[in-house]
Specification:
Layout lengths: L2 H11 L6 E7 L12 E11 L2 E3 L4 E3 L2 E4 L11 H15 L7 E4 L2 E2 L2 H5 L7 E4 L2 E5 L6 E3 H13 L6
Parallel strand pairs: 1-6
Antiparallel strand pairs: 1-2, 2-3, 3-4, 4-7, 5-6, 8-9, 9-10
Helix pairs in contact: 1-4
Length: 161
């Protein structure tokens, strides 16, 4: 099967499954030289399948996942904690509900390019088989098996998940 057809089959199976929110970080222009706070703008929803996000029309590589929350003074021991808190506040300013999980920093993939032999993010053709690199340090796994597992988990999650 081709990458495009495997993804189309996954979309069909996911038709009634819950979606997660997508957002895009917007850095507004300065007004009279004064910087304005960034915000995360809603960009629809997608099915989260590990390293991939599927929308009705596109395939995306997963970026960061944040939870929207109001800005509050906090002490941080690490700069990475401060950055995540700023992103969470930006999501809240963008209109996401308190505690909502939002995907940001995702990248558009080209499944048709994979079928022509090119790699696109975590997708690649390995020995003629559409495959996905499921983590930055992980190896490739056949896309068909990966999608079967991830779709099954999303449709029927284990108890307590």
């Amino acid at each position: 099967m081709t990458t495009v057809s495997l993804i189309a089959t996954a979309r069909e199976r996911l038709r009634d499954a819950p979606r997660e929110l997508l957002g895009e970080l917007i850095e507004p222009r300065r007004v009279l030289g004064i910087p304005r706070a960034p915000r995360v703008q809603p960009r629809g929803g997608a099915w989260h399948l590990g390293a991939l996000l599927l929308t009705d029309d596109d395939v995306l590589a997963t970026g960061e996942i944040i939870r929207a929350r109001r800005e509050a003074p906090r002490g941080f021991t690490a700069e990475s904690q401060r950055r995540r808190s700023e992103l969470a506040a930006a999501a809240s300013r963008g209109g996401f509900a308190e505690g909502a999980a939002v995907h940001i920093g995702w990248r558009m993939l080209q499944p048709s390019a994979v079928d022509r032999g090119a790699a696109s993010g975590p997708l690649a053709l390995i020995d003629g088989t559409p495959s996905v690199r499921w983590s930055a340090a992980g190896g490739f796994m056949p896309l068909e098996r990966y999608l079967d597992e991830r779709v099954a988990l999303l449709i029927d999650p284990p108890a307590g998940a």
